[in-house]
Amino acid sequence: MSTIQDTLTIIRPDDWHVHLRDGAALEAVVADTARHFARAIVMPNLTPPITKVAQALVYREAILKAAAKAGVAQGTFEPLMTLFLTNNTTPEEIVRLSETPGVHAVKLYPAGATTNSDAGVTDLLKYCRAALEMMQKKGVPFLVHGEVTDPDIDIFDREAVFIDRVMKPLRADFPELKVVFEHITTRDGAHYVRDAEGPVAATITPQHLLYNRNAIFKGGIRPHYYCLPILKRELHRQALVEVATSASPRFFLGTDSAPHAKGKKEDACGCAGCYNALHAMSLYASVFDQAGQLARLEAFASTRGPDFYGLPRNTSHITLKRQNYLVPLQLPFVQGDTLVPLAAGETLSWVVAD
Fold first, then answer.
1. Which of 14, 32, 256, 289 is catalytic?
2. How many other C-beta atoms are found inside a 10 Å radius of the C-beta of residue 263?
3. Which of 14, 103, 133, 180 to pair with 80, CA 20 to 30 A apart?
4. Which pTM value belongs to this model?
């Protein structure tokens, strides 16, 4: 007879894809990420975007200052900075990045793919070849938002088309480039990363593991389940759960937590993004528990990411316990507005013990 596991202690996890914003929004959300994650790869799509190492270091100090202001103990949280790739990124800037502690990767946003991505790349292999060559030479991880943005491509097909149009030619020309296929959403993406040759990995969000696209339309338009890349069909969700809970070292945690004020999400043209930093580990634990693979949560959350990035694993631990957790309907945000977390009003079955 099998027994139900009620607690799970794992190496303190890292978040390999998060949006912390800046200014008052940064101060409102940074403690949620720092509470459970020791490190976080911070996205550079601010306005203006973080395109230079010097800007990244200034942003890093702002994050640490905001964390301290929010009560995060010094030395318990480390932001890992990234640069926003543009058509004009130079090899010299890549060298500078490789020589700068605290700056760890370069991020591809195809122009117009998501929030604050208008300055993104318009033709990767046409304009960015010299930068890519230097990334490969210096071992700098390349983080890709894997969608094409052509208006004639259906939004649900953008990731699959990206694999054929961009990822395969990229890998053919730069086979030793370390690539992280960010927030994959499809069976196509999962199987591509699983079977690819060379240093390729992928992050997976809790929303794409827990929900399919029906969640956006359950009982009406539910804008707080709208994110980019958008939720897909159930067969894709199942494929993501399969690879996330497998023994493959190529799949690891990246929340893509993206805070937007409630009013901006519920607007006539609502913003894309799910806020999950508050309770990400509860969400992930629910996925692994439902799949009968709790024993593999530590690898997904705590060891595969640092191993791929060439960073040491954390030495501290967290404990999750089986306990009902009612997700708040909203959280305080900025200027009197509120923030609606993913799964607001739902009851989860795991929490992180204090």
1. 256
2. 12
3. 133
4. 0.96
